[in-house]
Amino acid sequence: MKFFTFILLLSLINPIYSQQNLNMDNLKKIITEFQQKFAPDKRTALFNVSCKLENENEVVLSGETDLADAKEALLKNLSQAGYKLKDSINVLPGNSFGDKKYGVVDVSVANLRTAPKQEAELASQALLGSRVKLLKESQGWSLVQTPDKYIAWMENDSYVQMNNLQISEWESSRKIIFTKINGFCYSAGNVNSDPVSDLVAGNLLKEVERDSEFVKVEYPDKRMGYILNTNCENFKDYLNSLRLTGENIVTTAKKFMGVPYLWGGTSGKLMDCSGFTRTVFMLNGIYLPRDASQQVNVGIPVDTKDGFSNLKPGDLLFFGKKATPTSKEKITHVGIYIGNDDFIHESGMVQISSFDKSKKNYSHFRYTQFVKAKRIINSAGENGVQLLKNIQY
């Protein structure tokens, strides 16, 4: 009798558990679909949401996202599907920054890491004068989002916090852009004076006044310094003077010859392959995505199925593994075509390699790894290619 009662209870309970599991599986599937829709690239968007069943019929949603619209859409979808919800999803930025939810980089090159600690992998870098959105804080580090939407951790000492008014004033101020690959800002109008800091190409500083030899500048933290006129230009004038041509791209790229490789680097100090291409195009008014696997998604495809004859100087070349019936395309490297079957890229150091087997700098490895090419020059402002002047940089 007891055995029969146990079997009867089990037969009644199992369908309930099965239905709960079915509902939870469906719920997790919906959350995954929303994540894929709103945050397909975890490098540029956060949508970390999980769920659990509480009090038999209430679903608790927890986690964090920087996409308020995505959260609201998810809650609406689940409510309409009949789920009873308890919302514990945190939308970033929270309240830890008060009204100062922006930062402006205050060092020549700020490191961005995958976790809030020095030993974490270097993911990218941000340059002096560029703004970041502050998302959350942890023990002297902040999770930030750069103008190209890249999300990573930056030390708090690398930036100056600003509210809406302050960031607006900074962005609207008259600024200079440092145009030399590397250099210094001095404490007086004299190159023998103590440096205020080092500088790299692309750094922005507020212009205070200038004379025939030096520009007096102001840092985000109000430090003052002096830069040689020959090493910088008025930022607006610089942007207006740019002419995006293959020749100019190649000329800029060659200025970085010999700069050593660093995974995550994006400056004239040290750089990785996509940091190199990104910096070269940035100095020519184009704001490319950060990584090679992102850069391959912008621009116009160039037909290379019969060789390299359709390539033009300034085209981006992508390397890795081509797609097969059983595997997806994988992009692991990027360079810039410079003509005559040659290309310039960051590999150990910035160097020129060739697809031409008769040349001394022929690279069999890169030849066999070539996947595709994209043209950026004819895509300015279109096909995912953003103009620097349109970025809140």
Number of individual domains: 4
CATH superfamily (homologous) name of the largest domain: endopeptidase domain like (from Nostoc punctiforme)
Helix content: 10-25%
Structural class assignment: alpha+beta
- Across the major sheet, the strand order is 19-24-20-21-22-23
Q: How is the CATH topology of the largest domain named?
A: endopeptidase fold (from Nostoc punctiforme)
Strand % is: 25-35%
Count of DSSP helices?
Answer: 8
How many individual β-strands? 25
Spans of 5+ residues with little confidence (pLDDT < 50)?
2-20
CATH top-level class of the largest domain: Alpha Beta
The CATH architecture classification of the largest domain is: Alpha-Beta Complex
List keywords for this structure.
393 residues, alpha+beta, Histidine-containing Protein, Chain: A, SH3 type barrels, 4 domains, five-stranded antiparallel beta sheet, 8 helices, 35% strand, globular
Summarize the structure in words.
- It is a single chain.
- The protein is α+β, with helices and mostly antiparallel strands and 393 residues long.
- The protein has four domains: 90 residues, Histidine-containing Protein, Chain: A (2-Layer Sandwich), CATH 3.30.1340.30; 69 residues, SH3 type barrels, CATH 2.30.30.40; 69 residues, SH3 type barrels (Roll); 145 residues, endopeptidase domain like (from Nostoc punctiforme) (endopeptidase fold (from Nostoc punctiforme), Alpha-Beta Complex).
- It has eight helices and 25 strands.
- The strands form seven sheets. Strands 19-24-20-21-22-23 form a six-stranded antiparallel beta sheet. A five-stranded antiparallel beta sheet has the order 9-8-7-4-10. Strands 16-15-14-11-17 form a five-stranded antiparallel beta sheet.
- A hairpin with a 2-residue loop joins strand 7 and strand 8.
